[in-house]
């Protein structure tokens, strides 16, 4: 079995693709993969560090601006060039199927495959689909969605199925003891993770600094703050100044590559509301405080977050209302209330779909058999 994967821009688009590859290798150990991404996105680094036998090739592509501009004309030209380059790579690799997991990079790749009459699958992580996947739904052989009810968002698709997010399967199998060992934590200490997504978020990093004086209110809890590579140095310096260098229970890191294992050890997590991330926390049943990004298309992160909030699995704080005091009050109430924390955990796990990767790969195999 030969499979082309494409998706990028953020880890939320890359990790589901890798989860699909992991599941394929479990079922077909001789499967071969080609990943088509960009040189500038996170996908190149994440794929290289995954340890999976995946060859990586790149195309040059950018996303569309939301208003009319000459840059959009350049984007159209890059798209056409990306289609030509993708066709070359696909013809050389000769895949059985091409899979796109979101982000503008998968646009020319899946489109090229469709024009070459190669079976294609697109995975949509969000409740509200993105521009690229809406465009591809007219050409793809099959669309797989993460949220029940999202099927109706693709009225022009040939086939739409619910599978859940494949990333959930990877995370559900993670070893919490390895996550604690990575951070040097005691077995039973409450662990609160604060993270602003794979690239970090300035507003959340600012709160990481501002809550330092409040930490004595939870003396037994450990905090892991993940800033993103670009903002790490500046955020760490501010935190060190605020804490006078006393950071025994406050771990500040730019990125964590074994995130599933660290997540498995978490008692509570504070984060944006990207769909792949929600698949991870529901697979593990982690209570969460979600701060949806206000800078995404169609405000889809708030739509994602409200999905968990309605089921009492998460608390939602809008960025415009975010302060250190309000956030720490919520953290404190959840960490110190085992009944509330346990209920949130059960509700979160009830919404998870740890077999999502198996369902996606099964759909892929059914598709190939029919064709």
Automatic annotation (TrEMBL):
Per its record, the protein catalyses: di-trans,octa-cis-undecaprenyl diphospho-N-acetyl-alpha-D-muramoyl-L-alanyl-D-glutamyl-meso-2,6-diaminopimeloyl-D-alanyl-D-alanine + UDP-N-acetyl-alpha-D-glucosamine = di-trans,octa-cis-undecaprenyl diphospho-[N-acetyl-alpha-D-glucosaminyl-(1->4)]-N-acetyl-alpha-D-muramoyl-L-alanyl-D-glutamyl-meso-2,6-diaminopimeloyl-D-alanyl-D-alanine + UDP + H(+)
| Pfam families (alphabetical) | Glyco_tran_28_C, Glyco_transf_28
Glycosyl transferase family 28 C-terminal domain residues are: 192-358
Enumerate the spans annotated as Glycosyltransferase family 28 N-terminal domain.
3-144
Record InterPro entries:
GlcNAc_MurG, Glyco_trans_28_C, GlycoTrans_28_N
Name the positions where UDP-N-acetyl-alpha-D-glucosamine binds: 10-12, 126, 198, 256, 301
Query: Can you provide one Gene Ontology molecular function annotated for this UniProt record?
Result: UDP-N-acetyl-D-glucosamine:N-acetylmuramoyl-L-alanyl-D-glutamyl-meso-2,6-diaminopimelyl-D-alanyl-D-alanine-diphosphoundecaprenol 4-beta-N-acetylglucosaminlytransferase activity
The entry's keywords: Cell cycle, Cell division, Cell membrane, Cell shape, Cell wall biogenesis/degradation, Glycosyltransferase, Membrane, Peptidoglycan synthesis, Transferase
Q: Which domain of life is it from?
A: Bacteria
Q: What is its EC number?
A: 2.4.1.227
Listed CDD domains: GT28_MurG
User: Which pathway does it operate in?
Assistant: Cell wall biogenesis; peptidoglycan biosynthesis
| UniProt topology in membrane | Peripheral membrane protein
> Where would you say this protein principally sits, based on its record?
membrane
* Keyword S-adenosyl-L-methionine set for record: no
GO biological-process terms attached to the record: carbohydrate metabolic process; cell division; cell wall organization; peptidoglycan biosynthetic process; regulation of cell shape
GO CC, alphabetical: plasma membrane
**Where does it reside?**
Cell membrane
What the protein does comes down to: Cell wall formation. Catalyzes the transfer of a GlcNAc subunit on undecaprenyl-pyrophosphoryl-MurNAc-pentapeptide (lipid intermediate I) to form undecaprenyl-pyrophosphoryl-MurNAc-(pentapeptide)GlcNAc (lipid intermediate II).
Family, similarity comment: Belongs to the glycosyltransferase 28 family. MurG subfamily.
Q: Which PANTHER family match?
A: GLYCOSYLTRANSFERASE, UDP-N-ACETYLGLUCOSAMINE--N-ACETYLMURAMYL-(PENTAPEPTIDE) PYROPHOSPHORYL-UNDECAPRENOL N-ACETYLGLUCOSAMINE TRANSFERASE 1
| Protein name as catalogued | UDP-N-acetylglucosamine--N-acetylmuramyl-(pentapeptide) pyrophosphoryl-undecaprenol N-acetylglucosamine transferase
